[in-house]
Amino acid sequence: MKDIKLSALNLVPIREGQNDQDAINDMVNLAQGLDDLGYERYWIAEHHNAPNLVSSATALLIQHTLEHTKNIKVGSGGIMLPNHAPLIVAEQFGTMETMFPRRVDLGLGRAPGTDMMTASALRRDQHHGVYQFPEEVEQLEKYFGPGNQQAYVRAYPAVGKNVPLYILGSSTDSAHLAARKGLPYVFAGHFAPQQMKEAIQIYKELFEPSDVLSEPYVIVCLNVIVSDTDEHAEYLASTMAQIMVSITRGRMQAVQPPTDDLKGLLTPREYELAQQRFAGSLIGSETSVKEQLKNFISEYGEIDELMAISYIYDQDEQLESYQRLQNALKS
Question: Looking at the whole model, is its pTM more than 0.90?
Fold first, then answer.
């Protein structure tokens, strides 16, 4: 497990009592902390019409983070292609690659990152973008490729920049695409673990070597909370449970402080769902999380990188969780 790289995903949530600017400041502070710890990459999500998240203008947030960090790679987890013309995406990320060489990642998703009504307001082609995902990934590969393989329309200054592309997925569909194109595959196990095992197997079995990769590269995103004891980690995880329930209730509330009375806040069904989410997460002390990760690998197979998303109310404890995760893998 010592060879597994570590990275982080951030949805730029607003904590209770904070505003949009505070959330962006927290985003930068966490990135700087992870940069100091030597984390591999830091990705920022794309979500729209979510009052508790400030991650709608993903490219702007990536640039802002790059400007305030030194070494960590910063990218999108992901850019939702149905919402964007590939030419514009290539121009934006080609520009960032020009400004911050070899530090920019482009994770690509085929979902809109929002509800259907908002998706209708976002989409440039009204509902066909999801089905054009494979073709639009190919367009991006061409835009970032060498000049002698370009058509008349070029995404300056992206030409020849070779910004690395990653295929995001929460089902088996994207696994086929990532394997066929020989691109790295990132599975969203933090919110959609149901098809994770099958998707990873499909990707590994069908992988075709490319100019980018000679063998499969698997990144799995999981909810991770590591503390000094199992009990305190479970206490901190009550924040994550409240976030999950607020989504199912349609409230989209700000990140709440942890509570000792999670059962009292949730219905029996909600509490059961929270426990199921906990079971699919890495929550506990360093020793416990190391064992949980061993069990995960035993069930799902080897992974190359663990991308952690950690909903923890206190910023210092959030950074400490990432440091303890690093300790767990190195020990």
Answer: yes
